[in-house]
Amino acid sequence: MSIKTILVSQPKPEGEKSPYFDLAEKYKLKIDFRSFIHVEGIDAAEFRTQKVNIPEHTAIILTSKTAADHFFRIAKEIRFDVPDSMKYFCISEAVAFYLQKYVTYRKRKIFYGKQTIEDLMDVIKKHKSEKFLLPCTDILRDKIPATLEEHNVDFTKACLYRTVASDLSDLEDVYYDILVFFSPGGIESLVKNFPEFKQNDTLIAAFGPTTANAVLNNKLRVDISAPLPNAPSMTAAIENFVKDVLKKKK
Question: DSSP states of 60-94 as a string?
Fold first, then answer.
């Protein structure tokens, strides 16, 4: 076995520093990046069928920058002027700072957790009297609404965007030693674009149990898994695998 080419099913990292770039240089690998999925916003007409009344909410829970983009987009489309009194509860500090694109940043109305819904709950619990809106995708992880329900938070889900398969037809005759996936949506895109795909010697790397399950459910093989105790990141998992391959060659 020889590992020379890797396709990562995500956009290319911005800037010059990335563990992927270091990996490529260290082991003389060709690593390409390509989004297998992309986001499309739903229009105002489809949003209205959900019968969600945005003005009756006093706070917004934002789990990503994408959620923020589509909340303000749909607000504009339905001609809703977001009041200055609206409170924002963001999954991370990065999302909170991103809000400056849309609102004047004031500490008294923007709150954030460290990175997970559990972290954010510590903040939300101090504001239980608010009526929360949760802008989300059509494939929102159950864990987020389940955690809010578990703590009796008064919230409404609003599906504002959906994740769809990207057109990958230009990759039809391209071969990679490793395909790297981070979500079930990426696997579904692979199967949708290439219904006759046969894994054969192609290695599949899957991040997280839900991604791994999607691989197996499509009768494919998981060769590289992350996160693991000895590989907390995908790049670490790939590096461990490459090292093992090189050892066997000696």
Answer: EEE-SHHHHHHHHHHHHHTT----TT-EEEESSHH
